[in-house]
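ok trying again, last paste got cut off:
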Amino acid sequence: MTPAASIRPADIVRYYDTLELDYRYMWNLGRNVAMHFGYWDATTRGFTAALERENAVLAGLAGITRGGRVLDAGCGIGGSAIYLARTHGCRVTGVTLSAKQARTARRLAARAGVAGLTEFLCRDYQATGFAEASFDVVWALESVCHAPDLATLSREFFRVLTPGGRLVVADGFAARARFEPPEQALMDRWLRGWCVAALATVEDFSRHLAAAGFADLHFEDATANVLPSSRRLYRCSRPILWLAALLERGGPGLRTRARNIVAAHAQYLALRRGLWRYGMVCATKPA
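nice, full thing came through this time. structure:
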């Protein structure tokens, strides 16, 4: 398994800053303003609807209310924060390691008319600097996978929540703690390309949350709900795998693009082999 120390915050920033144009191609960022898998169910009609549906499902689990205070931990370019502010009238603070993403999020929030309800800061979600009990909800959509220390992250999420506050997480989780060498190689091809050291199991993540003080832990498996988007990435990557081999010989930016293509291909193969699953974790800070 790739050691967590081999992926630094600067590597994560470089990944997202380098690949913004690639995400615009694969995920139609100009329209969707979202960088997550989405959630397909009987109500969704198309990819854009699936992206918005995931925000709606998570918001329901979080019990977000008008005027509530939400921390979007790992906010990307602000898609979820904008959705929450526009749809629920809550106040959202997004934090990201990337100053470029924070600037983009502010611009998109202004375009959406919710600049007054949102703010986007360049901060580490493991050490936010916010006062205790600053937020009613902590929201982490496909960002926990980048955390180098789940114990530290869990304690920080607990600290900034108000008593009775809710944590909602949607992310990929390893199906088991150990893999056979060929399985691990496949997982590494995926995770390395997306600048993730390793996926935690649900059990391991839940253990860290409980140790931090969280209660009422609940996991909802949503693997079937992300399968269409996972397949979409795979189909986008297949015709250009040859290009990845060429890009790998170039400079750092080109290698980042090469590994992203390989990762888009490998994540679906790993999912179909049952090596990881996608799910939503909810927990409460006791009142």
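cool. The chain has one domain: 4-284. Confidence is low (pLDDT under 50) at residues 1-5.
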